[in-house]
């Protein structure tokens, strides 16, 4: 429909002398006369904690379902291979077949991330999460009721597509709808939900691992959770920032989309917002206009200017998150406990539950302090601990094999420091740093990097261990952790307390 009545729309925006003044050029482009947020006239965002819960909770279910799949699969693979408890005739799977069951959701997530690059901005954050819930639901049911191996793998792939879409859209929706004062806590809390999902998955798996066809129940549990997520996202409003981006890009009549954004913001903030919703929407609209959000970014533009800078920060941080060995360290956790002589922890499932509890506690600490201490201090401190723990693991497997306490200490230090730094803050930064018009594509690239690097590190660890030895591999990861510290120190900005528009104006 386009911007049908620019003069009328501009007059309505400028009717309040305290509002930013917007004007159009002869070509119909939007100009700002004042730049309130960029010039320091920052208006506080009115909100209540109660009204912020549901716009966070239902998107966070996407993370919970991702974490649950990780935890449940560790026990499901044991159940599937059991002649006694699998409940199927095709339980005798080869290592490749079992690997496809384990990693099928990961490959599906790669597909979902690639698809999101093309359709995310067209769908919008809310509808993408609804579609994600649908894939979660169908994937869980297909896997749980699979009559043959091939159908089971298809179910794992479908579930993985849901993961890819959810891990792409959830941080965007939360970032764009959360008040700036608590945005860091809410996005970090999504990581808490991922870890909580892992803990639930490990726990459910340990309870059902000796039940006939227990793996079907393990995967089937995801279906009702996906229904809750889908119904919740159907009920929630669209992201006001996404609506205003559509307005700036001419995908509807400006005044009508402005009124829709105001209505959605009122739904998100509740009664606490009072009569400030129009002002907040006009602030955002003015900033988007000034920041030249009127065109959709091309793939070429993603590799230029501030888009490239945002991609370097976001995708770079996610890459280091994975190539510092996170999948491999957790993969090696059970063996480390066994080497240390902890008989109660020698069982892989119990060790996994213990580590998930530690991850949950440390993620909770990060959630509490991230908007107080800031992103950079947690990253620098946490990644320093990661580097030390990796060098300790390397030393244990090279020089200190008779001191298993070193390995256990290093493992716990790694898990704790990761959940204080890379775990929650990696997802937080990629949801904050991209300009609005490239946020969908930027996050899809970052999520693709995340799952791709995860798969690569998980796949490469065993061959590298055989070729070089575990000690050398951990030393290599430690060296990469040191490089990531330099990357954080020189490249990663502090975004604590800034609105998304201020972040773009200040750092990109």
Automatic annotation (TrEMBL):
Q: Can you list the GO cellular component terms from the UniProt entry?
A: cytoplasm; membrane
* PROSITE patterns (UniProt xref): MFS, SUGAR_TRANSPORT_1, SUGAR_TRANSPORT_2
Q: Which SUPFAM superfamilies match?
A: MFS general substrate transporter
What membrane topology does the annotation report for this chain? Multi-pass membrane protein
UniProt entry tagged with the keyword Transmembrane: yes
Q: Transmembrane stretches, by residue range?
A: 47-68, 96-117, 129-151, 157-175, 187-205, 217-236, 310-333, 353-371, 378-399, 405-430, 442-461, 467-492
Statement: the UniProt record of this protein carries the keyword Membrane: yes
Q: Please state the span of the N-terminal signal peptide per the UniProt entry.
A: none
Q: Which Gene3D superfamilies match?
A: MFS general substrate transporter like domains
| Principal cellular location given in the protein's record | membrane
Pfam families xrefs: Sugar_tr
Q: Name one GO biological process term.
A: D-glucose transmembrane transport
One Gene Ontology molecular-function label: transmembrane transporter activity
Keywords, in A-Z order? Membrane, Sugar transport, Transmembrane, Transmembrane helix, Transport
What PANTHER family does this protein map onto? D-XYLOSE-PROTON SYMPORTER-LIKE 2 (PTHR48023)
Q: What NCBIfam families does the annotation carry?
A: SP
Q: Which family does it belong to?
A: Belongs to the major facilitator superfamily. Phosphate:H(+) symporter (TC 2.A.1.9) family. Belongs to the major facilitator superfamily. Sugar transporter (TC 2.A.1.1) family.
Q: Any idea what this protein is called?
A: D-xylose-proton symporter-like 2 isoform X2
User: What organism is listed for this UniProt entry?
Assistant: Nicotiana sylvestris
């Amino acid at each position: 429909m386009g911007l049908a009545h620019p003069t009328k729309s501009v007059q309505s925006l400028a009717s309040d002398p305290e509002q930013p003044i917007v004007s159009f050029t002869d070509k119909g482009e939007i100009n700002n006369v004042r730049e309130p947020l960029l010039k320091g006239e920052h208006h506080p965002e009115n909100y209540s904690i109660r009204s912020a819960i549901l716009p966070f909770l239902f998107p966070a279910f996407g993370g919970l379902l991702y974490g649950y799949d990780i935890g449940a699969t560790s026990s499901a693979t044991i159940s599937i291979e059991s002649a006694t408890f699998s409940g199927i005739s095709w339980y005798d799977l080869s290592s490749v077949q079992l690997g496809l069951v384990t990693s099928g959701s990961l490959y599906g997530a790669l597909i979902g991330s690639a698809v999101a690059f093309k359709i995310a901005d067209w769908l919008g954050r809310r509808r993408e999460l609804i579609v994600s819930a649908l894939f979660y639901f169908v994937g869980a049911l297909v896997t749980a009721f699979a009559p043959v191996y091939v159908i089971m793998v298809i179910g794992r792939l479908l579930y993985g597509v849901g993961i890819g879409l959810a891990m792409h859209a959830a941080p965007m929706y939360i970032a764009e709808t959360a008040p700036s004062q608590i945005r860091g806590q809410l996005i970090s809390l999504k990581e808490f939900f991922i870890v909580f999902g892992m803990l639930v998955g490990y726990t459910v798996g340990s309870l059902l691992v000796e039940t006939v066809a227990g793996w079907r129940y393990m995967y089937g549990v995801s279906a009702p959770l996906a229904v809750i997520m889908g119904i919740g996202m159907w009920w929630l409003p669209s992201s006001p920032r996404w609506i205003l981006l559509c307005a700036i890009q001419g995908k509807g009549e400006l005044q009508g989309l402005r009124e829709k954004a105001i209505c959605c913001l009122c739904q998100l903030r509740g009664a606490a917002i009072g009569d400030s919703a129009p002002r907040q929407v006009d602030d955002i609209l003015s900033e988007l206009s000034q920041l030249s959000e009127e065109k959709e970014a091309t793939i070429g533009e993603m590799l230029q200017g501030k888009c490239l800078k945002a991609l370097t920060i976001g995708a770079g941080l996610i890459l280091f998150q994975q190539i510092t060995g996170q999948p491999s360290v957790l993969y090696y956790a059970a063996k480390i406990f066994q080497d240390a002589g902890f008989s109660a922890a020698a069982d892989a499932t119990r060790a996994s539950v213990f580590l998930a509890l530690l991850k949950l506690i440390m993620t909770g600490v990060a959630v509490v302090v991230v908007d107080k201490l800031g992103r950079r201090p947690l990253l620098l401190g946490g990644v320093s601990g990661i580097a030390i723990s990796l060098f300790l693991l390397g030393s244990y497997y090279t020089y200190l094999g008779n001191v298993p306490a070193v390995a256990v200490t290093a493992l716990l230090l790694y898990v704790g420091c990761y959940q204080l730094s890379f775990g929650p803050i990696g997802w937080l930064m990629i949801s904050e740093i991209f300009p609005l018009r490239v946020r969908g594509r930027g996050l899809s690239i970052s999520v693709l990097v995340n799952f791709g690097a995860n798969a690569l590190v998980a796949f490469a660890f065993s061959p590298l261990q055989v070729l070089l030895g575990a000690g050398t591999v951990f030393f290599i990861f430690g060296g990469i952790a040191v490089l990531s510290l330099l990357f954080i120190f020189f490249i990663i900005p502090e975004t604590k307390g800034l609105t998304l528009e201020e972040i773009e104006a200040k750092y990109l």
